[in-house]
Specification:
The structure holds 2 protein chains of 2 kinds. By secondary structure, chain A is α+β, with helices and mostly antiparallel strands. Chain A contains 2 helices and 7 strands; from the N terminus they run H-E-E-E-E-H-E-E-E. Chain A has one domain: STM4215-like (2-Layer Sandwich). The termini of chain A are close together. By secondary structure, chain B is of the alpha+beta class. Chain B has one domain: Alpha-Beta Plaits. Classes of the chains: A alpha+beta, B alpha+beta. At the A-B interface, loops of A face strand 2 of B.
Chain lengths: ~150, ~150
């Protein structure tokens, strides 16, 4: 089966939408009205309401070529960031953090091949809690590996 | 830190007024005044509650963080008791302490604010004897829908 970036990201979006406790999944690109202008990439979270959180911002990944293979095939990596926003009115959000991290880790682990669209997918690292009361976020660095068939399919 | 949802400036100011009105011996409380002219001697000690400044940061579509600065201006009048002037500094300090305690007794402002902090307390240099004036700046963080 030919693997490709479009199906992987679409599959990832669907899978992340089934994570327990996650309300919204949004894909963000390099531009557009929904993205912070002049700032870092990702959505402008102030355009979303509290009821839409916890929210995963699936930031358009960087694509890396790892190894050229025979027959125009190559190993590709997609390196993306999942930025997870959540609201917690406590100033100690360790419990919420741990629950979200566990749920996302479990889901990515269970869907290791992104529903058959990729060869492998794993979380490289997870940030500490960022933000302030009541809006917090966590960043997951996610790597997807797949074989790209460069022939026209 | 207690849990907190949304608040309004008006409710917070009313909460401060209620707290100050409960201070023992308070003579007069008013809003948005800086000068004590026209306040008669019998209405000392007085307090003015001034809405100074609000800074807003939109965090979510329906959550805005407000940093609300309130200036409390107060004054006491030293009295002559049995032919001896009372110590104005002591009287001022005692009154400031009472106001300070009243304001920070409930930092959540009845559930309207996230927190309340006293940032500065300043007094006059004594050149208005037998009156003494002070200013307490109060920094309140609350969240609102807009």
């Amino acid at each position: 089966m030919a693997l490709n970036r479009r199906d992987i990201l679409s599959g990832l979006e669907t899978i992340l939408g089934t994570v327990t406790g996650i309300t919204t999944v949004v894909r963000s690109y390099g531009g557009g009205a929904n993205v912070v202008r002049g700032g870092e990439e990702g959505i402008d979270i102030s355009q979303y309401a509290e009821a839409q959180l916890p929210l995963i911002d699936l930031i358009e990944p960087e694509e890396l070529n790892d190894e050229e293979m025979t027959s125009r095939r190559s190993i590709q990596f997609l390196d993306t960031v999942l930025r997870v926003y959540f609201v917690d009115w406590n100033d100690n959000v360790q419990g919420t953090y741990e629950t979200l991290v566990k749920n996302i880790r479990d889901k990515v682990g269970a869907e290791f091949r992104v529903n058959g669209t990729a060869t492998a997918c794993w979380i490289v690292d997870i940030s500490k809690v960022l933000g302030e009361v009541p809006l917090w976020n966590i960043e997951f660095n996610l790597r997807v590996k797949y074989y790209l068939d460069q022939q026209v399919t | 830190m207690s849990l907190y949802k949304r608040g309004t400036k008006e409710a917070i100011l009313l909460n401060i007024e209620t707290a100050i009105n409960a201070v023992s011996g308070i003579g007069f409380v008013d809003w948005q005044r800086v000068y004590d002219q026209s306040i008669t001697r019998d209405r000392y000690p007085f307090m003015f509650i001034n809405d100074v400044r609000t800074d807003k940061i939109k965090m979510l579509k329906d959550i805005t963080k407000n940093t609300f600065m309130v200036g409390l201006v107060g004054g006491v009048w030293g009295e002559e008791i049995d032919g001896v002037m009372e110590n104005l500094g002591t009287k001022l300090n005692t009154f400031v302490e009472s106001i300070k305690d009243a304001v920070i007794a409930d930092r959540s402002r009845g559930g309207e604010a996230y927190t309340t902090d006293l940032t500065t307390i300043e007094t006059d240099a004594g050149n208005r004897y037998p009156q003494a004036i002070f200013v307490i700046m109060v920094n309140i963080i609350f969240f609102s829908a807009e």
